[in-house]
Specification:
mainly alpha, elongated
Length: 134
């Protein structure tokens, strides 16, 4: 494997693992007994799982884009923000849904990181006149 392909392969694997987590989380959200969930916890848990699924797909697409993009560093940064943001957001939403403590600003921080990841991904598509990427 060429060294330049290693980051994109790692992000492909990460996206696939998030996809696995999405399916497992959906099963838990559907089948956990109500006594384990906070009021409205099932809806919150489903929302967290949905966010994981969206960002699993985003990481897969970004990893493929990384192979083609001239600015791998910005796509890598986007992937990192998407992953960290997803973990923070979903943990911040899921823990209280499972009758755990509220984790303060973890969910909003995760959402902000996710937005930064999407912005970096958008910026990675911009190029300079003449075909050179910014």
């Amino acid at each position: 494997m060429p060294e330049s392909a290693a980051p994109s392969r790692a992000w492909l694997a990460t996206g696939a693992l998030l996809g696995l987590l999405t399916v497992a989380g959906a099963a838990l959200a559907a089948h956990l007994p109500d006594r384990l969930l906070a009021p409205d916890g099932r809806a919150s848990l489903r929302a967290a799982v949905q966010v994981i699924g969206w960002h699993a797909a985003a990481l897969l697409v970004a990893a493929l884009w990384m192979r083609d993009a001239g600015r791998r560093w910005i796509v890598h940064g986007a992937c990192l923000c998407l992953l960290l943001g997803t973990v923070c957001f979903c943990v911040g939403v899921a823990v209280p849904a499972l009758r755990g403590p509220h984790l303060g600003r973890l969910a909003p921080t995760g959402g902000t990181l996710q937005m930064a990841g999407w912005l970096l991904l958008a910026l990675s598509t911009l190029g300079r006149p003449g075909g050179r990427r910014v």
